[in-house]
Amino acid sequence: MELETLAFVSAKELHNIDRVINQFKNGLRGATEESDALGVKLFDALSRDISTAVKELIAILKGSRNVAVLTEDWSKGLKETIKKYKNNEDKSQYDFISRMIDNSSEWLSTVIGDTEVRDDQLEFFYADEYVKLTKEIVKKLSLGTLLSGKNAKEIAYGELKYKDHIGLCKGWEEQLKSWIDEVQKSDDDDYLSGENIEKLKLAVSPVAIAKSAILTNENTNADIALYGRMLASSVKYNVEAACQVAHAISVHPVVIEDDYFTAVDEMNKYRDDAGAAHIGETGFAAGLFYSYICINRKQLIDNLGGDKELAMKAIKALTEAAVKVSPNGKQNSFGSRAYASYVLAEKGDQQPRSLSVAFLKPIMNQGIEGADFGTAAIDALITHRSNMDAVYGPCADACCSFNVLEGKGTLAELLTFVTE
Question: What is the distance between the alpha carbons of residues 239 and 250, in angstroms, rounded to a whole number?
Fold first, then answer.
């Protein structure tokens, strides 16, 4: 699972990720219970140390010697032996291993020879066999032979129902096959060296997990529900944003000032030079801004799975943050901690509207009778809103506002209004 492709990850999905990773760490289960039920045992065989999986077989092959001594074409002989001990009626794809151990006296003499073979070569041989078995599992899953039912309709239904598990199995196959190919092509003869084992751990990591084991459109976090997310390769997990935020614009002309600054190295004893350690400049301005936010309440509730209470909490939190919290960039240098001076909230079923065109003509002076920029901007906004309502008719079912400059209205009333 390539997590960097996620715009947002919900708490439920983070829980899913932790669950999958913990299962891999435990090394005892597959990615999902369903995949285990389908007989996908490859991870169980390889997530543990490969030497553990075939320890008894290697001990049998080695006999009393420190290394295995096999025939010159030992790999061919073992493959024939494995083929002989495989049984289509086995409950597990890997039952042949225990059967070979139980019946070692029947085949051991056919592969004993005078060619020394190291443990890691044998372990790698069985790893290769596991990959081939995985291919068989994938083939059977794709053909529906591991699924209940005999006719084509039931098989087609089974493939659709278990398509994610088939994808999971294919993911394992591709990852492990690439690992084996890489090791075979490398100059490292030690197949189980530390480096190769690390690569093997990556090969069976959650990167091969089907996205359906992680992603969900249920129990979505409020931030995902508000701002949405896009997954180009998993469109069904996309979330349509319920909130739109416009860039803030100043309501009057602004002159950009330059803050010229230097940084001095206090450890410099001026023996070689006495210059500044750093010189730079930062542009800044003091502006009065108009901001606009639009929330589709129905979309937000739908995104949250019908949880209206959570949707109202999200709207309330966003509204309070929007009017009280300033961007935190360069705060230590400029201390810009302004609250909103005027807030107008409208709600209804009509097409939303922005009132930014109230400032097509910037506030150029101190307003009527020497009013400040804030009062003049509020007057322009209210005038434009009234003109729009006069032309289009009422553009909202209800509204609520507060005006700090006049001391009218309260934030508490506004928050109550937006959540009713």
Answer: 32
**pLDDT tens digits along 204-250:** 554 445 555 567 777 678 888 999 988 887 788 888 999 999 999 99
Span 345-374, pLDDT tens digits: 999 999 999 999 999 999 986 545 566 889
Buried-state track 31-68, b at ≥16 Cβ within 10 A, e below 16: bbeebbebbbbbbbbbbeebeebbeebbebbbeeeeeb
Cβ-based neighbours of 89, under 8 Å, separated by 6 or more: none
Distance between CA 394 and CA 383 in Å, rounded?
Answer: 14
The Cα 186–Cα 195 span in angstroms is: 11
Helix axes 411-418, 308-324, angle to 10 degrees: 150
Question: Cα(203)–Cα(52) distance, rounded to whole angstroms?
Answer: 18
Tokens of 109: 């003499």
Name the β-bridge partners of 259: 282
Burial class (CB in 10 A: 0-12, 13-18, 19+), 76: exposed
**In terms of Cα–Cα distance, which of 130, 139, 84 is closest to 108?**
84
**Using CA atoms, how far apart are residues 373 and 250, in angstroms rounded to an integer?**
11
Amino acid residing at 202: L
In this structure, what token pair is assigned to residue 132? 């081939």
- Are 192 and 144 within 8 A, CB to CB? no
Q: How would you label 285-304 residue by residue, b for 16+ Cβ within 10 Å and e otherwise?
A: eebbebeeeebbeebbbbbb
pTM for the structure as a whole? 0.56
One-letter amino acid for residue 403 of the chain: N
Beta bridge partners of 345: 400
**What is the Cα–Cα distance from 232 to 300, expressed in whole angstroms?**
22
Half-sphere CA count of 195, side-chain side, radius 13 A:
7
